[in-house]
Amino acid sequence: MTSRPRPAIEVTKLGHHLGARIDGVTLRPDLDPRVIEEIRRAVLTHKVVIITGQHHVDDAAQYEFAGLLGTPTKAHPTVLSRGEDLLPLEGAANSWHTDVTFVDRIPKMSVLRAVVQPSYGGATMWASTVAAYAALPAPLRVLADNLRAIHTNDYDYAEHLTVGDSSDPEYRAEFTKTVFRTEHPVVRVHPETGERALTLGHFVSGFAGLKTSESADILRLLQARVERPDNTFRWNWSPGDIAIWDNRSTQHYGVADFGDAYRKVNRVTLAGDIPVGVDGRPSVSLAGDASAYSVVDTPDPVPGFVPASERSITAPID
Ligand SMILES: O=C(O)CCC(=O)C(=O)O
Ligand SMILES: [Fe+2]
């Protein structure tokens, strides 16, 4: 009998479909490659992981650590006035979304650090878009499999975001200074795990071939499936926490329940691939060139991937 090597990190599962905590790791530039690999695997499996106790991590160390998990993108496709590497956000992103879905090369992961926390409130929530898809009844799954959505940064943010930067006119102007529009499959096949995931969120402006009113109804229907509380994980930040999420299998939401208190988070995103639908069709860029923002990083499938929960449909990956 062969015995497995002892895990190098301690992962505690915190939610059935997503969410785990990693303790006992100190993030340093010379982190053991085995630890990095185990963190990467934990992110794929649990979709969002929180690494606690990283009080020593500043902006530079956050960026450096993110670089151990992949290739960092620029801070943002358009918002670069606050630095080219990290995207600081004041307030909260209080609307369900997947990061930067308006470009063709959606980031694979985001690494978030709470820099200033309010004395109460200000949690972040994540939802599993894999579990949401797998819970769809068969007719809705067939519908979703065949839909393509248009995502744009020129979306109706007033409909969604109400606090801090997100609702600040100057920030919005910079956010939309170049307009990006991309057509993505509504169901993408995760390039590493093979899991099928709904790809929606607040950047969706409609579905290819449908009328505006029809798009709104179908988006509401599918998006409601993602946001079901049973399908979410919520983290109340403590100093020194770092969150890493798989941006291909989740949406997230910053909870704006801290009144007028100041809250600041810093984000680094890692380059991802061009999504592919269940029919093998890739996403198509319709407006805007994202090549200055991010390289396209197409990873290999992970052999022997074991999903976090039974609510997961995997398609074979070629
Ligand atoms: O406000 C939050 O907790 C979430 C921030 C967010 O959406 C992001 O950094 O991508
Ligand atoms: Fe976000």
UniProtKB/TrEMBL annotation:
Q: Name one GO cellular component term.
A: cytoplasm
The keyword Isomerase is assigned to this record: no
Q: What is this protein called?
A: TauD/TfdA family dioxygenase
Q: Where's the TauD/TfdA-like domain?
A: 10-269
Q: From which domain of life does this come?
A: Bacteria
Record key words, sorted = Dioxygenase, Iron, Metal-binding, Oxidoreductase
Please tell me whether the keyword Oxidoreductase is annotated for this protein: yes
This protein's species is Williamsia herbipolensis
**Per UniProt, what is one Pfam family of this protein?**
TauD
- Name any cofactors this protein relies on: Fe(2+)
Signal peptide stretch: none
One example GO MF annotation: 2-oxoglutarate-dependent dioxygenase activity
Record's InterPro entries?
Answer: AtsK-like (IPR051323), TauD-like_sf (IPR042098), TauD/TfdA-like (IPR003819)
Belongs to which family? Answer: Belongs to the TfdA dioxygenase family.
